[in-house]
Each structure stands twice: as structure tokens, then as C-alpha cells.
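assembly run, all chains below
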Amino acid sequence: MQSHAYHCNQMKMTLSRAEYKEIVRWTDQLRPTRQCMKTLKERFPNHSQSTLLSIFSLEYQKRTKRTFSRHHAPEVIDGHYQRYLSGAKAHPAAPVLLELANKADLSPALMARIILERFLQGPEGEMPSKTVLNSMLKEPSLIPDPILAKNIYQCTINDCCYGPLVDCIKHAIGQEHEVLLCDKLKERNLSFLDENQLRVMGYDKTPDIILEVPIAVEGHIVHWIESKASFGDDHSHRTYLNEQFWSYWNRFGPGLVIYWYGFIEELDCQRDRGILLKDGFPADIVLCHAAQQNGPPHQPQ
Amino acid sequence: MAALLESLLCKKVDIKTVLEWLKNDEVCPEPQVSVHKQEFVPFLLNFLREQSSRALTHGPATPAKTPNRLRPGAQGCRSAAGAAAGSRSASRVQLFSPSPSVSPGSEWDAASHSLSGVNPFSSPSFATGWSPASRPSGHERRSGQKVSLGDYMVSPPDLQKSPSIQSQKSRRRSGGNMALGGQGKHGGWRQAHHSDEIGRRPSRGGGNSRISEQVSPPSVGQLNLNNLEDFPPVGFPSSCRASKPSRRINPTPVSEERAHSKPKTCFTSIPFTESSSPSLAVDALEGPLTVGSPLSLQEERELLKKEKTKRAQQVSSPLLSSLDPCTPTKSGLGAGSKVTPELQTPCPEPSKVTFSSELDLLAELYCTCISENLVPNIFLELFFVVQLLTSQSAHTHDDDERESLCSVNSGRCYLRRVHNFSLSTLVAHLDKCTLRLLAENERVASFSPALRDRLTEAQGGSTAQHSPSVSTFIHSVPFQPATDNQSNFCSTHAFHIFKKQRDIFYEVLREWEDFHKEQGWNFDAALGRRIRGIMSQLTSAGNHSHFARLFLKQLIQVCKGPGVNSSPGETPDADLLGMLGADSLGRLKRLEERLIQPQGVVGPCPPPSFPGHQEFFRDFLQAASCCHLNQHLQDSLCQQLLQLDEVSILSPPASVAGVDEEGDGDMEQQDEKQRFTSVLLLARLLAKFLGFISFLPYQTSERPSREIRDAAVALRSKSVPVLDVCAVLSNSMKRRRTILTVPWLVEFLSMMDFVGPLLLCYRTALGKLLLLYRRMLLGRCGEMCYLNKLLTVSVLGWLFQIPVIPEDIFFTNEFTEVAKLEDSSTSAAGLDCIPLVDQQLLYTCCPFLGEFRKLLAAFVSGSSAKSGGIIRKITPTSAELKDAPTANRSQQKLQVDLEQAFFHNQPPSLRRTVEFVAERVGSNAVKHMKATLVSELVERGEKMLRDGLASPNSNPSKLNDSICAQLCVAGLEAMAKATRFCSEKSPEAIRILLSDETSPAVRTTSENITKRLATEKACSWLSANITGTLIRREWKSRYDRVMKTAAGPPPPHSRLDVEAAAPEPPTKEEPSAAPKTRRGSERVTSCPPHCSHGASLPSDVLIEMKVGWLSIAVGPRTNDELLTGSQAKALLQRVADTLACRKVNVRSVSAELPVLSPSEGDGDVAGSGSEPPVRALLEQLAALWQADGCSSAPLHLLFAQLTVSAVLKASDAEVCLPAALTIDATVSVIRDLSGDEPPMPSASANILHLSSFFQSSSVSFTFCDAFLYRSSGRTTCFWLESW
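ok done. output:
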């Protein structure tokens, strides 16, 4: 992650809406495969890979949401399943399912999920339990049918947007950035309460951290900091504002949101209202009485 | 009433009697007309309004009209134009409408009739000056509504010029209309009044007709004044009157749009040409008119002006014209030549004032009414005066000038008079800008130079100080785990529901902030549904108390600061712009506001409003209309208010402590003042909302009919009001805390519905307030501080003028029955006696005081520009601030913001602790500086002074200046020292006071903030006072003392020399040498030659004298104590010795010594029968006196030859005489020494005095007491001083 943080600082993180649109337009044609990132990187060499990936991932999720119902109709699923069965029969070694997903313009991981679900379905149409399904997706060796297992595995590792692996990576990135944030704060001798401490104290809404002593970033007071290991686009930012940021403001006053993978510049328009966006840990920090730095930092458990 | 006025003007009744009558509760001075004071005052006010209405409506540039046109619909029209009265017509203020006292036309007719001796009905007169039809709000008028004087006064001249004469004529004929021509406007409007009014107040006619019967000729009395047919407008052919149907002419404003339309061409007939004084000008203009050629607007205006002024000449004011019916006019001047399109404002000249004695008389009456608080709102009256002052009469005729100026000048005269009582003291507290404008007003200068001078003077004294504006950032209410976490909710569900409600509440608030100023945005439409959603959830979850707390906290957070004030009456900001140190953002904001907001003059009585964010909370409550929530809010508001009302504000420490403590007192008092300000503002806010919520269910947009009202009163009188207003009020009066209670009670009461004031509880409270108001005379000094009083008077005056308070309430005396003011018997000095209100607070609470400035500014701009718009004068300020670079300043601001933010999410106790510690440490730092640095500096200064004085040809005053300057420079060190002191002490205190569990970061920050606050407090006080108050004052007193003593003892070394060289004992009496030195200025400053300094110490002598004296006065306890004559003699000798030796006793002691004892001693001892003759002792005493004992003049006088010989001649029994002498002398000496020159008692007075002592046998006892009392304290002082 250190290298990643380093990387972040080298690249341009915030995008103007125009730039963002440009990227989005490009991602429209992309499939969530290994190759896609390469293409994107070549096209937009000035932007960090994480930013591009994050943007693509968000866009792809939107696309998936739009088309999800299309793929989830029982007859469609049946069709996919039949096609897979016949394909696997004909070419047992080929990545049949992956190709099928590409052809259907569906995320490979999701395709794998659908097919696995169909495969596990009982004779009377009863659905398998989610836990079983999830564990099998995570660990294809659990799947009784080895060909299916191989196909599923090919799908999940090839998908850069969905799937247990991606979920795992996303979770890790989130965690890492929170840790990164805490490190930065400690580095600056800023004392704070983290989410867990806040929950214990009975707060109803908890940002990632609350500063015990507020700071000023670029002239704006900051009481709390929320870390987002993703790109801040319109849709996600709006959702976050309504579900999180404003709630934090309502309780703790103005604060800072760090979109580690950047955001659309134009979204940073609530500064005077008390929500500040940054794409990294701020450099311009004014402390409440410089002498405070001498105080020992307060260690969160 | 008219009769009384008439008698006054005819000089039948002495003005003084009337004034006395007004001031005191006496019976009417005019026995034939029994008039109640309560009735006379409104009559007088109406009369003045009426008389001056013409002046006020003249001229296109009367600025106050502007708002009328700009926002005709808002609140009904409330223009300040028609004088104060204009503003009334809208905000109701029916002062001038027929309150019971205002008599119908008959009275006035009678009065003028008898005055002039001419039947007013026969003289041609016209409805001059104004036409009600053009009143902008005319169409809003409902038949049941009253006609108030304001209705007649609003119409701006522009407007009245537009309707044709024809239409005026028809209007005049129309019965239902108020603009009756007829016998002058007075009769006319009264009549209209009456007819309009008769339905509403049938009971009131009786008294009036009685008066009219008494005074008026029978013919008048028989007329049915209410019937227009019977009582037609005079000057019109009756046929005309009959034929025209009554119809209303809608107002046709001559504004931009009017200018484009063709002027009406109805000037076909001029019904006035037959009038007694034909005007050439009008005739000349009539020609083209009659042929109906379209006139230019300008011409039309001119014509109307002519017409108006002509009429004015004829009837300008019946009262005055009847006295001097033919105002000499210079009509010989070619009239045509005067017709110029240019409107010039004639400059009024005092010398041209006609009827000045009558005007003076009226002014006198008026002033008394104001100064005695007989008017409901003194600011309204002052506003009226200022309006008269700034009225612009646009006349082109020279000869018109005098006429038109009559009333203008009357205003001037009022002003001149008014200033006599309190205007000048009053305005001294208005803001600087207003003062400047007033002082620069040339009319003030020409009519009352004295007032001008006082104003100019006051400008300097006006200390318009504004604290730096508070941070503009609006915080949310912090989540406090102690009150807000789950354990405070009855269920998890409720907790989560409240989580959502909080978020929705803020969402709504944010949305309101974003959109409420947009056109067409509707609160209820946009937010109502969401708000009601919150409410229904509240009810299901039972979270009302939580929500009520959130709501109130947010309300306080957003609305409490005086900075958040976007009311139409803005804060006095002119000074702010020039002020350094104000937050630059706030300044920009204010500048922006000034440029954007239309600066309308709204008059001194704006209706209650919810400025700024308050509007949101009001609308929220209205939209929510949730009785549960309201109940919770009420409970909470009540509790908080009563708590605030009890807040203890420390009075400044009694000044016994002396000079040293005063300075510190200042500082602490400042804190208390700030605390008071914040408490008062908060209480006002809460009270307004409490009032709003409690009266919300009863609010109606229209005044309910009498039946409904009565029913409502009956119904509501049974339920308990939310707040026992009466109890709160009387408690506050008893404890003299009205300065805190009254302003918030006023806010509460201002929210009343129409029925509210009629309920007994509120009526009684109003009555009490009224009595309080009457008692609070600004012109007199009472125990209450002036600005405190001013605030109380102005909020009360405002309350009495708001629409829901019944108009008659002020002029009834029923309250004297209902509400009795308890005599505040408790002597405890309450808040009222502490100077708590400053100008800023006054203007924050009463933004309408700023109206004066607007009016005056408008006059200034209007007199140069015709536009009539208000030119805003914006003081240019440089972008660069002189003291610190902007970056630095913004850094400082950021730090302050950070500090505030720090407390936001901490428990409130932390903030209290920090503030308390900072306050104490800061204060202690100052005390410490005084005790150490300042006294050190003064010591240093003294040394420098002594050294300087020792050097030859030293100039003490020059020396003083240079030392003082040096000390002041050195004194700046105090800042550094105080900073060090605060830095040391603050962290210690904080560490002890915060809990051990506090996180280190929080503790460190708290320490730092405390440090900063304490340092800031100490340093700001020190920097303001160290050189002035502290060092200079201390040094001055030290300097004086040094100089005084320098005159006494020689410099130490020379004294030593003398000591060394003078071993010989002193000779006891040196008759030859001593007398030479005794005279006045050449004082004995050194020991006689050969002085061994062996004489008794003065204290010993004093003690001995005291013992002897005791034995004389009280009687000796033992024989030992008995003072023998020889002892007395010896004592006297020792006194002489002691006096002679200058080692210890300087002048002061020496002066004291002989005074006290010898006379005493020997006198009574002699009386007790010892052998040495009294005479001898007395002679010795006299010799002593003649020698060198007495250095001050009074003593010499006392012991002048005459006196002494009288003493010597006195018999033995009269020995107490010297005692008498001594006490007088003592007093003189003491006075002399304490610096203020006593009035030199004349010798004869002394002798008189002495002889009275002489006759009194008990004198020695009295004397003893007095003397002991005096000497004990003083002696020590002198001793100290001698060193």
C-alpha cells in the first residue's frame, strides 16, 4: 500500500467533469477483464490506474444495475445455462463460461454466480442457500462438478469489478486507507477517536474518525474525516452526502472527505457549508494553537 | 380640548399652568372646560400632525414616500412618509385616529370659530394639501376600518397632483369619502372621522357634544355633524353636491408609469377663483387649462402647486390665519416669472417665521408631552420632529415661502424646544452617523444653533463601539453522548427514528437557506410535507422532548447573535465600515447588504418581525402545527426564560476600595455587561418564540368583531396563561430588574393576538408597563441609568405602537385602577442601577432607532438631488488594513474559529471551565501588574523626580512630562509580563479543574486556549489602560504628593546638614522671628536654627492631648488624669516646640496640632478651677498662633485680631469658645490640605458661628465627638503623608 500511496501522489487525482466524462465514454466499450485496464491506462496515461479502475468499476456497476434484470429472468438464465452445458460438453478445456459472459455482455463473476445458482438448483426449483453459494464462489473446489468449478474459477479471477476476489480487494483497500489515514494523523500528532470508539460511546452516526481538537484545512474547519477508497463521482457522492456526510455535519459540524482515488472537481462545492473534499491527506493543516503539537498524541485502541 | 388650546393661544390661560397640569396630576387649569390629560395629549398630537401635514407632503423629494411606491402591498402600506402618522396607517397605530379623546369636528369648529370671530363655515376653505383618494393603500381600506390621520398624510404631493381638480371636487362632494372639502381640513377630516367612526364607538359621542354645547354657538351645536347633507363642505354650490354620486377615486400614483401616460385634462373649472386673495400665477395658468390643452406633467405639477399654495394661503391653518388672516404676500412680483419647472427647496429662515409665539407655545406643550412621557412613543414623536425638520417644501413663490414654512418652521420650533428637554441628551446616544447628519443639517443650524453645538459636542462623546462580529459560520447542534446516545431513548426504535429526524431537520434547514429568498418559493409547499412527516414520526416514537431540545438549541445557535440580523432596520453600520478589526468577511457582507437591500424608511414603529433565520423557525412551527411539540417547546422556553430572568449580574464593586480598584472594576464590569447583553438577547429571542407559540392558536389576520372578541375574552379568561406575566413583572419591579425583564416581556407581548391584550392578565401587565413607561422620564435622573432607561422606554414605546395593542390603551386612565405599581420599597440595588446597556445593545434591540439616520440621510441627498432616493454614503475603506497583513489577520480569525470549533464537540462544561479560568487569570494578571510593575514604575519615577528636582533650575512640569513619558514606555513591559503571568497560571488551573480522564490533546488545547484568552483579556485591558489609567493616574497622584512634600521637607541631605549643625535646643517662643514667617506663602520649611529635633513627636503630643481632653470632656477617672493648669501650660509649650521643629512634622501636621489641643486643654482645665488664669493660657495660645503654627489662610482669619481679642475678653465660663474655633479651623485645614480650596469664611460669619457655639453649653461634647471622629482618620493620613 505504501507504493500505492506514493503512486497516488504522483498522479492527477481530481478530474474536471469534462475529463471524467471523457474517461466514462471510453469505459463504455470496455468489459471488466484483465485487458481492459491496460487499454485504459494507455489511453489516459496521466491518471493513476486506481483512479481509472475505480471510475470504470463504478461505471460498470451502473451498467450492470441497468441490465441486471435482463439477465435475471428465469428463461434467460435457463438459456445461459443450456448454452454453458452444451459448450462445456463440446470443449471441456475451453473457458466456455467466460466467453459466454463476454458474449452476453455480463460480468464474468455474475455469470458464474447465475450459472452456479442454476446448477445448484434442486429438482423442484428450490434455491441453494446464500452461504453455500458464496462459499462455492470463493472456493470453486467445493463445486462437485470439476469442469464447472474450473469455469467458475476462470470467471471470478478474470473479473475486475465483481466477484469474491474483487470484494476482498475492495474491502482491503478500504481498510488500508483507514489505517493510512490514522497513520497520517498520528504523524501529525493529531488526536482523534475512531469509529469503534465512537460506537462504544453511543453515537448514532459515526464517521471514520473524529478529531478531538479540530484542525483547519485550507481555511476550513474540520471536525471529522471520512475516508473513501474510491473515486468520487456524482452518483456515489450524492449518495454519500445524503446518507453519511450531511449526517456527520448535523452532529459534529464541518468535516473532510478524502476520496483517495480522486473525485470530480465540481463536486467540491460545499466547502463553505462544511464539507470539504480532498484526494489525499491534506498538507495544509492549521492546528488549534501550534503548541498543541507538543502534546502527546492520543492513541486509539 | 380645543377650548383649552384656544384659551392658551389667546393667552387666557397661562402656559405655565398648563405645563404644570401636564406634569402633575392636577385638575385642569381651565375650569370651564373639564379636560382630561389623557384626552388632551392625543388631541394635541393630532393637531400638530394635522397642521404640519401639508408641510410634510410638499415637495417631491420627501424620501419616505419611496417605500410606499416600492412595496405597496407589504404589510399594508407603511410609509414613514406621512410623518410618523404615515407609518401608522399601515402598522395601524391608531394614535391619531379617533381615540376617545379626539373630538369630532364640532369642537374644532367651535374653537376656531370663537377664535377668529368669523364663522369658519363662511370662509372659503378647501381640502388642502392632501387627498386621501391618492393614498396608496386606499383600496385596501374596508368600510369598518378606521380613518386615521395618517390616511390623510400619506399622500405624496406627486400623487395628489395627478388627479384633476375636477376629480378632487367630486370627491369632495362625495359623502362617503373622507376628503371633505368644507371648512378646512380640520373640520373636514374630523367630520369624516366621526361619521366613519360613529358606528364603532357610539358611546363616545356624548362627551364631545357636551363640550361643543358649552363653547360653540348654538347653530353649530344643532348641526348633525355626521350627516354630510346637513353639514356640507363649504364653498361648494349645493346643487353640485347633490348631483354627484359618491364615488371613490382610486389612487393614481404619479410615478414612472404615470409620467408616460397623458395627464388628465380635466382642469376645466377652477372653483377657487372667487377666493379672497386671487393669485396671478394661477390665473395666468388657468388660461391654457380651460381650453383643455394637454399639459405637460411639469406644468400640471406647477399648477397644482400653485393651487395648493393658494389654498394654503387662504386656509393654511385656520387657527393661525384667523389670528393673522392675511399673511402679507409679495404677490406683486410677477407670478409668471416664478413658474419655473425647477423645484427649489426654499431654505427656511427663522426670521421669517410668522406666529412664532403661537408656535413656541405649541412647541412648549409638545415638548412637555414628550418629556413627561405622555405620548405613547417618544421616538415616534422625535421621528415626527425630524421629519418636519427634513420636510421639503417645494415652492417657487417667494410669498409662498412664509406660509408654507409656518408649519415647517413650527417643526423647527418644536425642535428648538424639544432640544431643551432631552433631545440632545437623547440623541447623544444615537449613533455617530445620525448625530453627524443632524448636526450638519442646515436647518438645525439656522433654527437652533445651540442644539447644533450640543450635537456637535455629543458626536465626540458618542461611543459607538461595536464588538467584532461573531463568526459567521453556523454550526449544527453537537451530538452529545451524555444526552443524545441510545440510553437516553426509551427504545432502540425511538433512537433510530430520532437519528432520521435530526437529519431531515437539517436537510429542511439547508433547503430553506438555499431557496427561501427565491421568488415564488413557498415554505409549506416545499417543506411542509417533510416537516409533518417528522412530526408524525415524533408522535409515534414519543421523541418530542428530544426534538424540542434540538429545535431550541438550533434556534439559539443560529439566531442569538446580534450579528445575524437581516431585519429591515439594519444595524448602525456606517461606523462599522470605518472600524478596524472587524471581521472582513462580515464587513463585505454588510456592504453587500447595503447595496442590495432597498433602504426604505420604515418608520420608528415597525411591526414585530422574525428577521433572518428566525423566519425559518417560525415557518417550521407553523408548518408543523404539532401541538405536542409546541407544548414541549413552551415548557422548555418557560423554564429557560425564568432561569435567564434570574441570572445574577454583579454590580460594579463599591468604589470604597479607592483608585486602584477602579480600573479593575472596569474590566470586570465589562465582562458583566457582556454577559448581560448575551442574556438579554437570548431572553428576547426565547420570549418572542414563547409568545409566538402561545398565541399561535388564536392568531387571526383580521381584528375580530366585538362580539367574537367578547366571547373569546370570556372563554380564555378561564384558562391559565403560559406565563404569569404580571407576577414576573411585579417581581422584577420589586427587585429592580426591569432592564432585563421588560425587554423580553415586550417581545413576548408583541406576539399577542387581537384578543390577548383584552385578557385581564395581559391587560394588567400592559397597564403596569404603561405606568412604568410614564414613570421613566428621560429628562430626569433617577436611580436608573440613562441608557437602561432609554432602552426600556424605546422598547415599551414600540410595544404600544404595534398593531395588536388596542389603540385606546394608552390614553385611558383605567390602568391606574387595574394596575398599581408597587412601590419598590426594597432598597437593594438591582440591575436597573447598573449601567448595563450600551449603544450597541440599544441599537440591536431597537433597530428602528436607525430610522432617524435614514431620514436625515434622505434629506441630505434629497436636498441636492431631486430623485428622492436615498443616497447611501459609503465610507471608502482601503483594502489593506493598517495594523497587520491580511494573511496574518485571517490566520488569527482562523485560530478563533478553531477555538470555537474545538468546544463544539466537547461537553459544555469544558467551555465554561476554560472561560472561567481565562477570565480569572486575566483579571489576576492585571491586578498583579498593578501591584508590582506599576508601583515599581511609580517608585522609579519618584526617584527620577527627586533627582531632577534636586538639580538646579529644574522645571517641575517639564520634568513631570518627561518622566511620565518614560514611565509609559516602560509600562509597555506590562504586556509581556502579563503574558508570562497568564502562560504560567492558566495551565496549572486548567490541569486541576479538568478530569484526569480528559485526553491529553484536549487538555493541552484547553490550556492553550485558556492561555490565549487570559492573555488577550489582560493585554487588551492593559494596552488600553496601562499608559492612561494606570501609570498616568498613579504617577500624577504621586507627583502631586512629591511636589507637595517637596515644598515641605528639604531634600534629605540638606536636612541632615541642618541636623548636624543644630545642636542647640529651641527657644520656646520667638516673638520677633516667628511672625515674619507666618504669612501666607512663605512657609516655614525648616527647623529654626539650633533645633535639636528633641521636641516631642507630634503623635505623642496628640496622644497626650487626647488624654487630657478625655479627662476634660468625659471627666477624669482618677485624680492623676486631672489636667492641671500647669500641665496644660506645659503641654502647650510642647506643642510649640513640636511645631517649631520641622524634622517630622511637616506643614500638615503642624497645622493640625495647634488646632486640636491647646485650646481644649487649657480651656476646660481652667474651668475646672486650677490656678493659672485662663487668660494667661489663652494668651499663650494666641501667641502660639501668631507665631508660626498656622500656615493656612483660614486659620489666620479665624484667629484674626478681632476674634482673638473676643476670646480673650470672654469670661471663664465661656472657655468652650476656643473649642469652637478649633473645630472650624480644623475643618478648614482639612479642606485646605485635601486640595479643594474651601470657600473662605468671612470673618463675620465666623463670629456668628462662634457666638452660637458660645451660647450652647453642650458644645464641648459635641465638639469632642466631632473632633475625635475627624482627627483619628486624618492624623494617620497626615502622618503617612509627611513621609
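The mean pLDDT of chain B is 60.

The CA atoms of residues 135 and 1137 of chain B lie 95 Å apart.

not gonna interpret more than that til we talk
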